[in-house]
Design goal:
Elements (H helix, E strand, L loop, with lengths): L2 H23 L3 E5 L5 E4 L1 H7 L4 H5 L9 H18 L1 E10 L2 E13 L5 E10 L1 H29 L3 H14 L5 E7 L5 E9 L10 E2 L9 H9 L3 E3 L12 H6 L4 E9 L2 E10 L7 H32 L9 H18 L2 E9 L2 H25 L8 E5 L2 E9 L2 H17 L2 E3 L2 E3 L3 E8 L6 H18 L3 E3 L2 H22 L3 E10 L5 E12 L3 E3 L5 H7 L2 H21 L7 E4 L2 H5 L3 H9 L9 E6 H6 L1 H13 L3 E7 L6 H6 L4 E4 L1 H5 L5 H17 L2 E5 L4 H10 L3 E3 L7 E2 H9 L7
Parallel strand pairs: 17-18, 20-22, 22-23, 23-24, 24-25, 25-26, 26-27
Antiparallel strand pairs: 1-2, 1-5, 3-4, 4-5, 6-7, 6-11, 7-8, 9-10, 10-11, 12-14, 12-17, 13-14, 15-16, 19-20, 19-27, 19-28, 20-21
The structure holds ligand C2E and calcium ion (2 copies).
């Protein structure tokens, strides 16, 4: 070797040593290996990265084993082939150290010999954990930023607290990628927290949270209580190990909640509720995030404050600040919501406009403040009168409006005025040490007949009110015809109510005769009204009104009781008293307590059942056939007899008649009246008789007035008859005489 060569070699060696020193000192991994997968060199940084101390630990395995599976596949299938083909490859892969994955950026170089074959591969690997971590944090922060700005947008837009809460939860889950978010509100005393909004994966987590801050002996809600008491953000970055979460640990783990934060929501200075966010990552809430989250918290609280202020403004815009009742604007709004409903349900709505009289005098004598006090008191009484407060308004200056919905007839409006409203105002008002009596006038407009919208109805009610003032009437309907009709109805209704109270109703009895033996086989009780003004009033003139006003329930019960009492008395006096049938109205049958009422009238004495029966009009039974069948079944099981009244005038289908739990068919009087002259009436009567026979029912003919009719009915095989021929309906005293005579005339 020449001196030159030696020198050259030394230079190279020195150069190499220098390069090796550099490589050994770099913080990145530098390593090389042969094409069989054995590492031939790795610098100290590389060994540290892998958690090894010596090269042998690395070269004992295939060098690709230092990667987790996904990275191994990437390096083997893409990295190395690419480097072999093009000299080098770079990309993001990962290494394993003690089973943990370290994100790295990696360069692979392929070194060829003079023959062009691959001699060895080398790699340079940089740990990019820190970079990745900060990328993740930036992403997370971006998420939180997005939440912040979305919530701010919502705050600007929304008018309602509920919407703000719903949106906050939704945004937190959708944009913030929180696993679950919910808002709970405290009651006025801050004692109970109730969830009001939620979003995300919950699966029953909240069902148990109706938190009482007063009694949390188990300490389950410590974080929530802390957020409330300290009025600041409370964070738990490790739900699994945090003692404050001991009650919820398992439930939370099952749902993948690993960290959580609770924010107090403030309105003014008061904590009104809590927002809770649950993240699927441990240590989610770090300082930077918390700063943003506190900002979100402040913004929501600002939003709440804002909404409250606006609500207060709305209150002034929609409520009468003197009485606290809705003002005209709100009343119109609500009325316009009621009207379409009434239209669908085919019910009436009445708008009553009530004006307290002499308000000007009162203001002059007692001063404005006195007048205001009076109005406040009147408003309070109206509000407490049982009327729907939402349908009550004060338009100012002593003008009150009431909307009555769901009414069936005009008279209901008059009722409300005469009873509820009048009685509110009847008692004197104590204002400024004086007892004041107030009277009122009212105008009534009805939907749909007097107007289709709130405005028209109001104008017409106002017109009616003006007329009432001029005419000196207490109230007037807008439609003049209604006034007379309603007034008459109301008067009669009041009279009937009094008639019931004063026991002016009486029962007359008409005997039923057995057409074979001529004996009295039964009695029918028929109601009359003994009106002191006009004498005995027949039922057709007052029963419809009893039905309309609901008084029929009392009157019907009275009739049953009276019949039972008469029966007992006659029997007790040793009279041969047959079963008494009482007429029952469809309204009674439909009433839910009908069966119960009958049972109570019969009382415990079982023998009473055999003393009574009921008659129900055919068309009424058919009205709600299934319910009728059920009720009648129970009644018949009690031992009462049931007759289908006015049979032949309804449209019963034969299949139903067969199913009806009844004993008797009563052929309507209209067929009997012409039975001797009209062939069709004979056919109908004959058909009913055979129908009754084949169904095992007794058949009674009503309204028999002549011998001819009786004979014909006997020939047709009718069982019983009832009519003037034998006897008119008789007052009970006369009926008693008839029973006493033990009448046994042959027909
Ligand atoms: P209804 O049940 O069909 O009663 C028979 C009606 O015919 C009775 O009229 C009776 O007086 C009358 N009448 C009986 N025989 C003859 C006759 O030979 N010729 C003529 N022209 N009429 C005769 P009233 O008493 O005026 O009763 C009328 C209706 O009032 C009854 O018809 C019944 O539906 C109803 N009603 C009577 N009392 C009650 C009651 O206590 N409760 C209920 N809900 N309705 C009753
Ligand atoms: Ca009857
Ligand atoms: Ca009849």
């Amino acid at each position: 070797m020449s001196k030159l060569q030696i020198l050259e070699r030394k230079r190279i060696e020195k150069e190499q040593a220098r390069l090796v020193a550099i490589i050994e000192a770099t913080p990145d991994m530098v390593a090389s290996g042969d094409s069989d997968g054995r590492a031939t060199y790795c610098n100290p940084a590389g060994l540290r990265m892998l958690g090894f101390e010596r090269l042998q630990e690395l070269s004992a395995q295939h060098y690709l084993n230092v990667h987790p599976a996904w990275a191994e596949k990437l390096v083997r299938e893409t990295g190395i082939p690419h480097a072999v083909a093009h000299g080098s490859w770079s990309g993001e892969t990962a290494l394993l150290r003690g089973g943990r994955e370290i994100p790295v950026s990696q360069v692979i170089l392929a070194h060829k010999g003079e023959d062009g074959q691959i001699e060895y591969l080398s790699t340079v690997v940089r740990d990019i954990s820190a970079l990745k971590e900060s990328e993740r944090r930036i992403m997370r922060l971006n998420r939180v930023y997005a939440v912040l700005s979305s919530i701010n947008t919502t705050i600007v837009r929304t008018r309602s607290r509920q919407e703000l809460f719903d949106e906050t939860c939704r945004i937190a889950v959708e944009q913030g990628q929180f696993r679950f978010a919910w808002v709970g509100l405290f009651d006025a005393e801050g004692a109970h927290l109730t969830p009001v909004a939620r979003a995300g994966f919950e699966n029953g987590y909240l069902d148990r949270i109706v938190l009482s801050t007063r009694d949390d002996t188990a300490g389950c809600f410590r974080m929530l209580v802390q957020a409330l008491r300290e009025s600041k953000l409370v964070v738990c970055n490790d739900i699994e190990n945090d003692p404050r979460m001991k009650c919820w640990r398992e439930e939370a783990a099952r749902r993948g909640y690993l960290s959580m934060a609770v924010f107090p929501l403030r309105c003014g200075t008061q904590v009104v509720g809590l927002l809770s966010l649950y993240a699927a990552e441990r240590d989610f809430f770090d300082t930077v995030e918390m700063k943003l989250l506190v900002e979100i918290d402040d913004d929501i609280s600002f939003g709440l404050d804002h909404i409250e202020k606006e609500e207060r403004l709305n209150y002034l815009a929609y409520y009468d600040d003197l009485t606290g009742l809705p003002n005209r604007a709100l009343f119109y709004d609500r009325l316009n919501q009621i009207l379409p409903v009434a239209e669908r349900q085919k019910t009436l709505v009445a708008l009553l406009l009530v004006n307290l009289e002499r308000m000007r005098d009162i203001n002059e004598t007692l001063g404005r403040a006195g007048g205001d006090t009076l109005l406040k008191m009147a408003a309070r009484r109206l509000g407490e009168s049982g009327m729907n407060v939402n349908h009550l308004a004060h338009f100012g200056a002593g003008y009150f409006a009431v909307a009555l919905d769901n009414i069936q007839r005009e008279a209901d409006a008059a009722h409300t005025l005469e009873h509820d409203i009048a009685s509110c105002l009847a008692k004197p008002f104590a204002v400024g040490g004086k007892e004041l009596r107030v009277s009122a006038k009212a105008g009534i407009a009805l939907f749909p007949s007097d107007g289709a919208d709130a405005d028209t109805l109001f104008r017409n009610a106002d017109a009616a009110l003006k007329k009432a003032k001029l005419a000196g009437d207490k109230y007037l309907f807008y439609t003049p015809e209604l006034n007379a009709r309603v007034a008459e109805n109301l008067m009669l209704e009041n009279k009937l109510r009094r008639a019931l109270e004063r026991e002016q109703l009486v029962l007359h009895y008409q005997p039923k005769i057995d057409l074979r033996t001529g004996n009295i086989s039964g009695l029918e009780a028929l109601m009359r009204w003994n009106d002191p003004d006009s004498g005995l009033v027949p039922p057709m003139q007052f029963i419809p009104l009893l039905e309309e006003s609901g008084l029929i329930l009392d009157a019907g019960q009275w009739a049953l009781e009276q019949a039972a009492a008469d029966f007992r008395r006659w029997r007790a006096n040793g009279l041969p008293t047959p079963r008494i049938a009482v007429n029952v109205s469809a309204f009674q049958l439909r009433h839910k307590d009908f069966v119960g009422m009958v049972g109570r009238v019969l009382g415990d004495a079982g023998d009473m059942a055999a003393s009574l029966g009921i008659e129900i009009t055919e068309s009424m039974i058919m009205h709600d056939i299934e319910a009728s069948i059920r009720k009648l079944q129970v009644i018949r099981d009690m031992g009462l007899e049931i007759a289908v009244d006015d049979f032949g005038t309804g449209y019963s289908s034969l299949s139903y008649i067969a199913r009806l739990p009844v004993n008797t068919l009563k052929i309507d009087r209209s067929f009997i009246a012409h039975i001797t002259s009209r062939a069709t009436d004979i056919s109908i009567t004959s058909a009913i008789v055979s129908l009754g026979r084949s169904l095992g029912l007794k058949v009674i003919a009503e309204g028999v007035e002549t011998e001819g009719q009786k004979t014909l009915l006997q020939q047709l095989g009718c069982d019983e008859m009832q009519g003037y021929l034998f006897s008119k309906p008789l007052p009970s005293a006369e009926m008693e005489t008839m029973l006493r005579r033990g009448i046994n005339e042959r027909p």
